[in-house]
Amino acid sequence: MSAFTLHDLQCFDAVVRTGGFQAAATALHRSHPAVFAAVAKLERQLGLALLDRGGYRVCLTDAGRSFHRKAQALLHELEGLQAHAAQLAMGEESELRVVIGDLCPRPATLALLSRFFANCPVTRLDLHYEAVTGPWERLFDDQADLILHRIDKSDPRIEWVDLCKVAFVPVVAPGFLPFAPSRSLAPNQLRDFTQCIIRDTARHTDAESYFVIEDAHQCTVPDQLMKKEIILQGMAWGHLPRFLIERELAKGHLLAITGRHLPGRTEELVAARRRDRPHGPAANRLWEFLQTQAAGFRAAADAPPSKRAIARKPARGAR
Q: Whole-model pTM?
């Protein structure tokens, strides 16, 4: 059996993934004859028929299916090696682009980033705020090195560090509803009242909605703090993160209307970055720092408001 090349394997893998020689050629930026010749050469060198070309679309033979599984593992290792080489070549980054999402408890999040970047004199923090699907769009458009937000954990392109869980509670100001709220309150009973929602900052990604009641009048705001103020002033109702309204709930300035039909929701806040992109030394140090600080961040986020204030207060002599 003659030796085959990585190029031959890449052409074969592309044909399998895309379902045809022309599609594989387009994906690899090669000509159709070049891809066809590479796969034919691979089959000759192996002495195996890897593809069945008898149908409308090429498909794997049994031998091809088994060989492709092994080839994928090798190609994945190659991608990892290429990414590692790219990391070594990058050197120290001049800046890291970090996006904070609307789920973040800002004091704890900013304190975490501040501690890291205080020890990075060469690397500047380029910080942005995005809401709803905005952080994902920045990440997948290669406009962010790291996001702090919710993610789809089934997406193979992403790796993440769990930070904390964020509970969202439906709330109103006292007197906003002309009737006493109960646990049986249904969404259709709120259709005649203004609902305050966060404005999605994504530019081209399909918008996703959370808790939105169809056909209800809405007011949109840029962030959770503005949303909280709108609700406190009795101008609308809406869902807010519990960490932001614990004092107002305790003092009766806001009323939770959680019930069977309005259960609220718990989201997982994570630090996330692209698994399929190389990362430089500073980005990797930030990632390792977040992994080591995650438990402390979670404890700070879950602490009562009074203890959070104490935890943020610097020790005597600290800077």
A: 0.69
